[in-house]
Protein 1
Amino acid sequence: MAKNKRPSIKNEAQYEALRDQGMSKEKAARIANDPNSGKKGGKASDYEERTKSELYEQAKKVGIKGRSKMNKKQLIEAMRNN
């Protein structure tokens, strides 16, 4: 991919709104490209209700570095701030 070209964004308006809120390009793109993006009433459980293994797998999907050394509380913090 060219250096200045970004990946395809499915929900351009949401991407721009998230960028305006200060989110990184990666996080804004991940949210805007989610198939459930923009829908209310998400069914995801709270991070605290998930197991450490579930949090680890989600952190792996979004590319959080250092996740293997994190405890559950640290994984939750990283997920919220990524």
Note: The chain has four helices and no strands.
Protein 2
Amino acid sequence: MTPAGDGERGMILVNVLLIVALAASIVVLMVSARDTGIDRSLMMREAARARAVALGGEASAVAALRRDMTEAPESDHMREAWATVIQPDTPIAGGRFSLNVVDARAKFNVNMLARGVPGAQAMLADMLAALGYPPEYGPLITRLIVTSGPLASLDQLALGGVDAETIARLRTIADALPVDGPINLNTAGAPVLGLLLHDSTKAQQLIARRTTTGFLTPADLAQTGTVTPPGTGFTSDLFYVVTRARIGGTEQVLTSLVRRRTDDAGRPHAEVIGRWWGTPPV
């Protein structure tokens, strides 16, 4: 056999190096694919655990709200037993957890406009005027909602040409809810209360009273020379439950809309009528 020349030996070496490099690349890809698969599996397990924790938080809030219907049906405020399920951000095994309950009846429901509820247009006009908008804005938004039907979210107003700033400002005093009901004077904020009473001074007096005692009664309103405004009350049937659960590097945010009602037999019910995973709408 004729010995290989320098050129042939060089080519053989190059080919060997190429084969070695290719094999090393394949090994790296296999290891990377395995690591990626492990990471993906881990994230899926963490996400599943976080969702389970979030749903558990939802269930505890629903149970507390149902129990409150029989224990204290005459009033709903933030010092009742149902509010004790509220949990600030706290460590749990493998991550963190928080739960908040927000009274959905603390704001004006724009969907009352679509259903022609008496007084709804006047209330919207007052709210928009308080926000500094000209009188024509009320009829404009009313037409949009009447034409489109009940909104799933205030964000849908953008489809009718309402700008983002107006929607953001409106969100501070209004919401789009699937069920009509009175505004709860025990949870309404100062802007909403001032608009309902047409008197910001009386609203501040009532909020100070509410802060001290935890709730309001018709007698409290009478002391300020005020009667209970139409379309308002002291109880609520709709609540947002916002649960955040982080397990490892995965976070799940669940917002649930809980409705309370009494059936024909007088039995209390609290049920989830809407769920959103991700950024909460409230």
Note: The chain has a mean pLDDT of 85.
Protein 3
Amino acid sequence: MRDALGAVCSGLCLIHCLALPVLAATGTTFIGFAMLSSESTHLWLCALMMVFALWAFPSGWRAHKCLWPGLLAIAAAVLVLLALFASEAEETYWIASSLTLIGGHLMNRYLLRARASL
């Protein structure tokens, strides 16, 4: 459940990062566009991503003892920090961190299910 929520949250971040530039490029606007494109939205999504990661990965590691999901989470955290402090290619870092964290959550979920079926 933890990893599913984490993957969904990271997926929302990914959709946000991919959809807003497309909407802006096509001239599409809506009432919440300014709010969704603000920097505070990135910070809230980042905070949610990190909360779910801290909730899911340590307990997953204790259960399956595989480092790969946690390493993916650390790589995603580094990419998030780069996105927060980079002046160029910021969206690229956000997209990469979302995809990396989704991969980590899915791997963690798979390993937990594989262990439970033993």
Note: Helices lie at 2-26, 33-36, 39-64, 68-85, 90-116.
Protein 4
Amino acid sequence: MTETTVEQHPPAEATGGGFIDPVPMEEDPAQLFAGDSGTLDAAVRRVLVRLLQRRFLVAARNRSQWRTLLENQQVIESRLHDLFVHLVVDHDRGIAYKKQVRSAELDVPILLKDDPYSRAETLVLVHLRTVFQRERGAGEASVRVDVEEVEQTVLTFFDPDDKNLAARQTEIRNAVRRLEKEGLIEEESEGRYRVTPLVEIVLSNERLVELREWLRRQNEEDQR
């Protein structure tokens, strides 16, 4: 853990009837900007900001920031705890992310707002998680899907009598784009995506089972 402290300048000393002018605060080498009262190095602050800005910090994509996080994990955790936010570092997957602290005993102001997935996004996520689980279980190191395959699978969960197929397809494509933006999939070539381990964090195995059961009941009701 690396911390710096603001350097204190000595009092001005008399010299030959005059005074030595103090170094302006803006030129203090221990500060990053005028009036800076922070104690973290610039690199550590950047990791802290990234954790607050983004949903995940992935080691494979940000090796320098990942190293900084591990070297300064205790102080970064402390800063997040001040905001009632947990830091989760998954060393096996090389992923770090934050979680909102929630407590029935403590009045906790909510900093991290829930941004629920739409129906189409949930259906795409379930498909990705299912494929990821199946392929990893079969020993595959990397899991890939084609957008046409995703689209055709997800369309089976919509009302078959819905005549607005183009609108449903647009919903699904938009869902794919959102999940790509969040890092759950990465486009390797046009229309072909690699599913990342983030999908396991966003959708746990227990939640996957619940959603599969919900979808099964929905299908049974639609067929009645």
Note: Residues 119-137 form the longest helix (19 residues).
